[in-house]
Structure formats: structure tokens, C-alpha cells
Design brief:
The complex is a heterodimer of chains A (114) and B (169). Chain A has helices at residues 26-36, 56-69, 82-90, 103-109; strands at 3-8, 11-16, 20-21, 43-47, 53-54, 74-78, 99-100. Chain A is of the alpha/beta class and 114 residues long. Chain B is of the alpha+beta class. The longest helix of chain B is centred in the first third of the chain and has 22 residues, at 45-66. Classes of the chains: A alpha/beta (114), B alpha+beta (169).
């Protein structure tokens, strides 16, 4: 489960390089997120542009990663591909996360934040 | 298979009939092959996604629950196309489903649990129940058999109503 991260302003951008976040790799995803996000930042933006598929295990791992961040930090999602977006929509978990078309939109959104 | 302009009228036939070990790697392999075959047959990508989403949940269930830790076994995936639907049959020789029934698949957040207000599990059967029709679980001799129907071309449905807007600048 390959992921990389970089920091822009107050945001940690975590880019998943694997094409699938599924039952085979969900635990590793969550463990990697725990490690990467130990680096402090107000926001964590998960760039999902490479992820073509996510199942319920992957969804659970994303939810778990959000919980790992604690109350003070937000996990936001960017660039959901159609099958992934479908899973979030069907489970209504698209209402739980801020979801952006891409990382740039996510970063720009702080400029208009209330 | 014949391919005309809009929604293709696929001939009735077998799309997949494979028996393979119940492990994640084999499941991934057959999910991908099923995608390829459906795409080649002209199925719209939205339907291909729905199929993959449901199959992943049902097949992973077999991998995770049918055979106890330390043991393994096979599963059989049979997908037939019948006019505007796919008929799916997943069978294995593992343990029966608890209470001899397929889970109801209520949304994990249906009942608020103050100890776990944001559950990480339980979405799989909810997803299956949302997408498929006519799901039946049967236990015959030493086999589990899960049957369901996937209606094709139903992509523009109620859940496209905008209730959770994506944020755009």
C-alpha cells in the first residue's frame, strides 16, 4: 500500500498511489495513515486520484483514519473516481467528509472558509 | 457479442463460470477479469462499477467468513446474463451463514451507538442490499449458495438526487 505525502500551508496532502483500497490492503492503509498523519497539521487531504476502487473495508479504513486524527483535525477527500464516489454515495458517507474535485479545490476552500 | 448504438441487447449467456481459491488475490483477479468481460460486451461503466462493488463484497465475505482461520477452500463464481440483468451465483463449501440467513444489511449508523457513533464496519451487506435484487441464501448439503440479480442500465436512479453536494470553489 503505497502512499506519499507533502505539506502545503496548514494541510498535509496524502496521495494514495495504489489503485485499490480494498479488503486486501485496508489494514495497511489505516496503519500507514496513522504513521503519516502523526505529523501535525490542521487538515489532512487524502488525494484519491489514483484509486479506482474502494470496497467496504477500504471505506472502513478511511473512516478509521479520520477517527485516528481526533476531533481537532479534519480528514478531507479529493478526486474520487466514479466507482469510489459511488460507494461513498450509496453508504451516505459522502455527507461525513468534505469532498473536493481535486487537491487544488480543497486547498482553495480555506480562502473562503467561514 | 452483438453491439449496437445505445444500451446493448446482450445475448443470454455465461459471462463468468470459475472456481478458484477463496483468497483476496484471486478475488481481485476475477473482479478485474469480470470488469474486462463486461466492458468488452459493451456494458456502460456505471453498471460495470455496480457489479464490481457488489461482487467484491459478496466474494470478500466468503474469503473472510466461510473458511475458518488456518483453513482454506474454493469458491465458485457464476455470472449469467439474461436480457437486462446479470444472474449471479456464488457458492462455497465453508461454514454456513450465522442463523442460516444472509444479513439484513441495515446501515451501520441506523441505531445510534454512543460508544461507536462512527462505525468502521458493517457497510458491506448494506451496500449489497442497496444494489441487488432478489437475493437468496441457500444451504444445500455442504454448500453455501448465494444468488442474486443485478439489474443493468438502472444507473440514473433515486440516489442521484442531490442530497450531499460536493464542495466546489
Amino acid at each position: 500500500m503505497q502512499m506519499m505525502c507533502n505539506e502545503v500551508d496548514n494541510a498535509l496532502i496524502v496521495t494514495v498511489k495504489d489503485q485499490r483500497i480494498d479488503a486486501a490492503v485496508a489494514v495497511r492503509f489505516k496503519d500507514n495513515m496513522m504513521e503519516l498523519t502523526s505529523h501535525p497539521s490542521e487538515r489532512v487531504i487524502l488525494d484519491m486520484c489514483n484509486v479506482e476502487f474502494l470496497d467496504s473495508s477500504g471505506l472502513g479504513a478511511v473512516v478509521g483514519s479520520m477517527k485516528q486524527l481526533g476531533r481537532e483535525r479534519k480528514l478531507e477527500l479529493a478526486a474520487l473516481t466514479p466507482a469510489v464516489e459511488k460507494v461513498f454515495r450509496i453508504t451516505r458517507m459522502d455527507r461525513v467528509f468534505n469532498i473536493f474535485d481535486d487537491v487544488e479545490s480543497a486547498l482553495q476552500s480555506t480562502a473562503d472558509a467561514t | 457479442m452483438p453491439h449496437d448504438g445505445g444500451m446493448p441487447e446482450l445475448a443470454s449467456g455465461v459471462i463468468v463460470d470459475e472456481t478458484f481459491p477463496a483468497d483476496f488475490r484471486w478475488v481481485r483477479r476475477w473482479l478485474q477479469r469480470t470488469n474486462d468481460r463486461l466492458t468488452e460486451a459493451g456494458l456502460p461503466s456505471d453498471d460495470v462499477h455496480s457489479v464490481e462493488i457488489v461482487l467484491a463484497e459478496a466474494l470478500n465475505n466468503v474469503v473472510e467468513h466461510a473458511y475458518p482461520d488456518g483453513t482454506t477452500g474454493d469458491l465458485r463464481l457464476l455470472i449469467r446474463q439474461r436480457s437486462n440483468a446479470l444472474m449471479v451465483e456464488i457458492s462455497d463449501r465453508g461454514r454456513p451463514m450465522p442463523q442460516g440467513r444472509a444479513p439484513l444489511g441495515n446501515h451501520p449508523m441506523t441505531e445510534f451507538n454512543k460508544h461507536d457513533p462512527m462505525p468502521e464496519g458493517g457497510y458491506g451487506w448494506f451496500i449489497i442490499r442497496e444494489i441487488v435484487r432478489d437475493l437468496v441464501y441457500d444451504r444445500r448439503e455442504d454448500q453455501n449458495i448465494l444468488l442474486f440479480r443485478l439489474k443493468l442500465g438502472a444507473s440514473k436512479s433515486e440516489d442521484d438526487v442531490a442530497i450531499g453536494q460536493k464542495t466546489t470553489p
